[in-house]
Amino acid sequence: MAATTGELLVTVHGATDLQDCEEWGDMDPYVTLAFTSPAAEGAASAATRTSMKGGTNPTWQDETLALPVTADPGQLRVEVWNQNRAAPDDLVGFGQCSIYEALQGGGPSELAVPLTAHPSGKAQGFVHLRLAFRPLPPDQAAAAARAEMAGAGAE
User: Fold this and answer.
1) Is 24 helix (H, G, I), strand (E, B) or coil?
2) CB under 8 Å to 113, separation ≥6 — which residues?
3) What is the DSSP string of 70-117?
4) Tens digit of pLDDT for each residue in 10-53?
5) pTM for this entry
């Protein structure tokens, strides 16, 4: 696994026009985030709190999640789930977005990530995010790189 270079700060504003997968009442959606790179597989992921009775246009009051970034994180995978009490949670939709601009230090990026409905595969809804990158201070980045090299030599 590559050394951590900083954190991707993802502020989840809300979602719009989600597919309603709840038979009774309103959906209770939450968002999960993870990187797509094979190098990042099994690395950190994050989830918002559940927007109880958030329905098809939930908000998360600008909840900010931090994901450690390695040398090659790939894209950001965004999934929206509906929390259920007596059954497994339902995957409402998923999408991916580039994090390149945020990693290049271009300042915060506001995005509307289009979602694909599960299981129909139809396009539906958006998750609204702000991405920003916070690099490690130089001394911490150097220490992380040294620790990574020492770990690679032990394998």
Assistant:
1) coil
2) 78, 95, 96, 97, 126, 127, 128, 129
3) ES---PEEEEEEE--SSSPPEEEEEEEE--HHHHTT---EEEEEEEEE
4) 999 999 999 888 888 899 999 999 998 876 666 679 999 999 99
5) 0.85
Which residues is 76 bridged to in the sheet? 35, 97
Closest CA relative to residue 134, chosen from 61, 65, 47, 86: 65
Contact residues for 60 (Cβ-Cβ < 8 A; gap 6+): 12, 13, 14, 31, 48, 49, 51
Q: Domains of the chain, with CATH numbers?
A: 4-146 (2.60.40.150)
Percent above pLDDT 70 for the chain:
83
How crowded is residue 107: how many other Cβ atoms within 10 Å of its Cβ? 10
| Mean pLDDT (the chain, rounded) | 86
The secondary element (H helix, E strand) that includes residue 15 is strand 4-16
Map residue 67 onto helix, strand or coil: strand
Written as six digits, the tokens of 36 are: 């797509």
Residues 6+ apart with CB under 8 A from 110: 128, 129, 130
Q: Which residues of 56-75 are buried (b: 16+ CB within 10 A; e: fewer)?
A: bebebeebebebbbbeebbb
Residue 1 is predicted with a pLDDT of: 42
